[in-house]
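Support request from a user on the community tier.

User writes: "When I paste my structure tokens into the form, the page sometimes reloads and wipes my input. The last time it worked, I copied everything first. Here is what I submitted, just in case something in the input itself triggers the reload:"
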């Protein structure tokens, strides 16, 4: 049967700084206020009934936050609103729904232990877009003895926020292969996005079937397209290439993952190596341990196929197209891979206006100001006294801005790699949050801190109550 679930959450948030600390707002689906304030969240819905081949479910999540910033705003938001149908391995989501994430710890309600949720392109950092997503669960490839599996997704969405190209459309394609041998799984594939159409201040891209076909096949624009779309791919296209190795032990599991961003052909051809998010995760099946899950991540995105575009070939001395990949940014779709001002993917790619303190999620944001990062991250989860779940997040990053606009020091753009001593800005962000189950409700709490040269130094505290029906 379709069990009905209901959750009510009330949370207060305080900060000693001008804004809430990083991990207080990052990967919170864009729901938390930007400054000290409060959040109310109501979630309702049903789950699939696995006893049936044809299944259905629905979900609705409404949020309201009070932002005690300079203008004391009260914001109402639709977080999720969807209906889903499933037949065997095929499912269809209609509406607004969160992207699935990985690397959860002792309690899913505390969020992922990873900086990206295990998915560089969609980390849960921004609000959900309306649209549809057709999904394929892993299905075995014939004649492989169930050692090779295929899975993926295909969908289209519409932006509703204020952005440089108003009303832009978004296409997503995911295609993955799983190779499974005994206890070992190897997953690899691509998560591709394309931003297109909308009201461009310079030249609109018409919504036609021909343009749509060019978008989903990542081709050049026709003769009527802009210069950039004719010489590159149509619209703003990018994504991530995922490689994941998993081993299932007796009562435990470990994962090694390399998630590579790309924004052009040079990235797709791995010319941007060693850029990527490298994740090592370990988890026990039993979560009633002091430490049940540990995630370590190393991010490096400084290379971006090199500081030239075109860039010199290592072999012939000729020049090839590539370099300065500028992840999450685009010259025509200048809001880039952001939604309501927040990066849709990696939250360590800070949006434009972050360092100066001018960023505002309600206004037009022109992409990200920092996508050249070297960062170390540790996530730990378990149950205190084997009963109350907690999550610890510690992130240290060196931030270089972007090639053409470094945060500090000299630019490496159009300079031979290694000839410029670049100057990064250091940033440290931490969080410790948890839950205390009471008789009919759960007490939630969190301690947060930022110290560094990009974000304001701040200490934050949150306290809330959650009521659940149906668990």
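"...and here is what came back when it finally went through:"
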């Amino acid at each position: 049967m379709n069990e009905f679930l209901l959750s009510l959450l009330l949370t207060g948030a305080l900060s000693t700084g001008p804004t809430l600390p990083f991990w207080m707002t990052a990967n919170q689906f864009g729901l938390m206020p930007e400054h000290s304030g409060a959040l109310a969240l109501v979630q309702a819905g049903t789950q699939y009934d696995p006893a049936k081949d044809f299944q259905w479910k629905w979900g609705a999540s409404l949020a309201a936050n009070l932002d005690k910033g300079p203008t004391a705003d009260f914001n109402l938001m639709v977080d999720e609103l969807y209906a889903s149908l499933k037949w065997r391995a095929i499912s269809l989501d209609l509406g607004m729904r969160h992207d699935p994430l990985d690397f959860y710890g002792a309690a899913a309600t505390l969020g992922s232990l990873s900086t990206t949720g295990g998915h560089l392109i969609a980390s849960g950092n921004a609000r959900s877009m309306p649209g549809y997503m057709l999904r394929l669960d892993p299905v075995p490839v014939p004649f492989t003895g169930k050692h090779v599996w295929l899975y993926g997704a295909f969908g289209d969405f519409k932006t509703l926020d204020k952005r440089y190209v108003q009303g832009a459309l978004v296409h997503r394609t995911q295609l993955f292969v799983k190779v499974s041998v005994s206890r070992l799984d190897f997953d690899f594939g691509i998560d591709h996005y394309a931003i297109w159409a909308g009201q461009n201040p310079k030249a609109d891209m018409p919504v036609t079937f021909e343009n749509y076909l060019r978008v989903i096949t990542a081709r050049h624009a026709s003769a009527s397209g802009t210069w950039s779309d004719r010489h590159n791919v149509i619209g703003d296209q990018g994504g991530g290439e995922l490689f994941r190795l998993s081993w299932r032990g007796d009562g435990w599991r470990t994962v090694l993952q390399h998630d590579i961003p790309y924004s052009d052909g040079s990235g797709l051809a791995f010319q941007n190596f060693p850029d990527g998010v490298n994740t090592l995760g370990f988890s026990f099946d039993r979560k009633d341990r002091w430490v049940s899950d540990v995630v370590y991540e190393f991010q490096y995105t400084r290379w971006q196929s090199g500081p030239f575009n075109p860039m010199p070939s290592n072999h012939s001395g000729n020049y090839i197209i590539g370099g300065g990949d500028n992840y999450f940014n685009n010259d025509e779709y200048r809001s880039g891979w952001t939604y309501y001002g927040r990066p849709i993917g990696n939250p360590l790619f800070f949006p434009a206006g972050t360092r100066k303190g001018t960023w505002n999620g309600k206004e037009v944001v022109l992409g990200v100001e920092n996508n050249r990062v070297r960062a170390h991250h540790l996530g730990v989860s378990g149950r205190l006294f084997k009963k109350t779940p907690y999550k610890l997040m510690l992130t240290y990053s060196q931030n270089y801005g972007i090639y053409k606009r470094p945060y500090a020091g000299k630019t490496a753009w159009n300079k031979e790699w290694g000839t410029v001593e670049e100057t990064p800005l250091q940033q440290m962000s931490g969080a410790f949050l948890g839950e205390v189950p009471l008789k009919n409700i759960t007490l939630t709490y969190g301690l947060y801190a930022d110290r560094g040269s990009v974000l304001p130094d701040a200490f934050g505290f949150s306290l809330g109550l959650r009521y659940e029906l149906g668990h």
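Agent notes: The reload is a front-end session timeout and is unrelated to the input. The mean pLDDT is 92. Residues 99-126+143-459 form one domain. Escalated to web team.
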